[in-house]
Amino acid sequence: MVAVVAVGCGDEGSKPPPPFGNEPVRQEARLETFPGCEALEQHIEDTATKQMRAVLEVYKQYTYGGGRGGEAPPTPTVGAPQEDSAGGGGSPTDYTGTNNQVSGVHEADFVQNDGTRIFVLSGQRLYLHRSWPAEQLARTAALEVEGWPREMLLDPERNRLVITSAVSEPRPGSGSGGRVTDGPALDCAGFGCGGYGHGNTVKVTVVDVADLEAPRVLEQVYLPGGYLSARRVEGAVRLVVSDGFRWPADVRLYPEYSRGLFDNRLRLAAHIDALIQQNEQAIRAQTLAQWLPPGRRVTAAGEVKPLAYDCTSFYRTNAPTGLGLVSVLSLNLDASESEPGRTSLVAAPGEVYASHDALYLAARHWWWWPEPGQTTHTYLHKFDIRDPDRATYVGSGTVEGYVVNQFAMDEHEGVLRVATTVELPGEEVAGDGDAVWTPPETVNRVVTLREEGGYLKQLGRSEDLARGERIFSARFVGTRGYVVTFRQVDPLFTFDLSDPAHPRMVGELKIPGFSTYIHPLGDTHLLTFGEHRNEDGTWQDRALKLSLFDVSDLARPRETFTHQLGSMSSHSEALQEHKAFTYFPAKGLLALPFMDWDYNASDYWSGFRSELRVFRVDTATGFSPVGTVSVRDMYQAFNFPHWSWYWQPTVRRSIMADDYVYAISDAGLRVSHVSSLQTPLATAPFLPPAPAQPGPQGP
């Protein structure tokens, strides 16, 4: 368990709290269960006390050296050419679905389809469509979803949609979402919403969509926290939820600034010590029910059932990580009457990766403050998900560095491969009255691990690569691995992973710019998307960039074709969201959402464009632009009043079925034939966002 130095209370309250320092990295990380609720509450309060202390102790530096003596400190925040076919028939011959990292492990998104039906979350509604034949695309129903819908999973075999949304409910205290702040936990899955958050509760809605004109809500689950990620393997759904500690209302995480206080070193130190003791008393007085509010479940008949937690299903780590709670919620769609299973970890949230049989959670080692010699480390926790009712803890491991996203992790034949960027410590040098830290140096590597005796033990490690750069994208395919790093040029590194004990970098190719997503085309080629940059890394010639790489010879990767699109101001959601990247192997087609701005235009609308761009991809001939599906009329119709960080009527996703292309935005969806993309065959507009009211609504 995390080592914590207790602060004195009662008669000892007048004494300053004893000092404490950083804790070392745990090379043999593990999770341990709690014997009961008393131990769980004790651990939460110990951890909260320590994090509170770490935040407040920082303020004592403002009295040192005179450089900050009269300066008000800031409020803290810690923190993937065929014959033409007609659009008729019962279903298309082939179609695209969500761009999943692992085949058969379905990922949640705000769009789902099964070839003949398209479901879209937009604003606070679920829109249902009959999408085949393509010329007869039509909305059949709309269902109001409580709160702010995020993502969903479709199980076409069972005709179930599992929708996650963020709901605001009155709760005591303030959640931190794994960060020590005075604000609420954020729920920004798939949105990059920065400082915006709209809920402190995750709502899961299970909908029967067998009748497209009359969707039925079967179950609703409410849990405190924010949605992180979700996966589905057959009828088993796993939802990863993050929740912050709910600080007592009178806990203060920074001293109020006054010149008389911050100009006196001893007075400020004494004030902080008193504030620490006052905060700890409030922390220790809070009950477990206040730290962990219960959830509830609403049946199809409207019966409300409490979702109590089992204290023995919570785990603590023996390694220091940031403050927070992460839970894996298991929904068995073949056992609709059973209560969801829940496995929880007292730790900060991180990246999530899942294979068919296992789910991995990554959490960074927590350094309370910078000091010489520390490097980044990540703890990896493996859970067995073969039981559809519960995620079972298997073991933990430690890797040096951090993972950039889910694609930096991959499991193959029982071996976990991880690509990490290691930050080497900077140095403290003298400044003008203050200590100054030089930027950290970086190196990159691939590490292999296998579970053994409850631990994820390292099998092998590649050499260190690309000093001074960091990983922008990674992909593992069978016994091969690919990593892209960037600082000024974009090195693509290839790895031979056929011997897990000896992962080897065997090839390197340097080109300007970088790739943020790598898509394998069989075993011999890679299709990547990213940005073109000058060789000095500047933005003057920036553009979006598609590349084809021939990796048939791992030792000699070649960039065989490239295609640049857009101006310096261009953007695509596919740069940071792999689900916006749609490749259709049956037709050799690629579709990308695209936005651009012309700042010399006479007005906003004539200078702005949002469209779906479609390319034919051939490993022998490269990229051939096919055309664009524009939604100009749709976003112009909504205009400015309805735009927000949460809802934007620009192209965000696409679906392809036989020779038809569907462009999807928050304003609606439309379909065109690939031979005439600029001429829509049908459009199904959505309604502008409106306050949510439960219950189905007609088209």
* Tally of DSSP β-strands: 44
- Unreliable residue stretches: 1-14, 64-86, 176-197, 691-699
Main sheet: strand order: 1-15-17-16-12-11-2
By CATH, the architecture of the largest domain is named 7 Propeller
Fold and architecture overview:
Residues 1-14, 64-86, 176-197 and 691-699 have low confidence and may be disordered. The chain has 699 residues and is mainly β. The chain has a seven-stranded mixed sheet, with helices on one face. Strands 7-8-9-10-13-14 form a six-stranded antiparallel sheet, with no helix packed on it. Strand 29 (480-486) and strand 30 form a beta hairpin. It is 9% helix and 42% strand. It folds into two domains: 10-32 and 46-76 and 249-285, no CATH class; 106-247 and 292-574, Methylamine Dehydrogenase, Chain H, CATH 2.130.10. The protein contains six helices and 44 strands.
Write the layout of secondary structure elements.
Blueprint: E1 31-33, H1 37-57, E2 106-107, E3 111-113, E4 117-122, E5 125-130, E6 138-144, E7 148-155, E8 160-167, E9 201-208, E10 216-224, E11 226-233, E12 236-243, H2 259-262, H3 265-285, H4 288-291, E13 295-299, E14 304-307, E15 314-317, E16 325-332, E17 341-346, E18 352-354, E19 358-364, E20 377-384, E21 392-400, E22 409-412, E23 415-424, E24 428-430, E25 435-437, E26 441-452, E27 455-461, E28 470-477, E29 480-486, E30 489-496, E31 504-512, E32 514-521, E33 525-532, E34 543-550, E35 558-565, E36 582-584, E37 589-597, H5 604-607, E38 608-618, E39 622-630, H6 632-638, E40 651-657, E41 660-665, E42 668-673, E43 682-685, E44 695-697
Parallel strand pairs: 15-17
Antiparallel strand pairs: 1-15, 2-11, 3-4, 4-5, 5-6, 6-44, 7-8, 8-9, 9-10, 10-13, 11-12, 12-16, 13-14, 16-17, 18-19, 19-20, 20-21, 22-23, 23-26, 24-25, 26-27, 28-29, 29-30, 30-31, 32-33, 33-34, 34-35, 36-37, 37-38, 38-39, 40-41, 41-42, 42-43
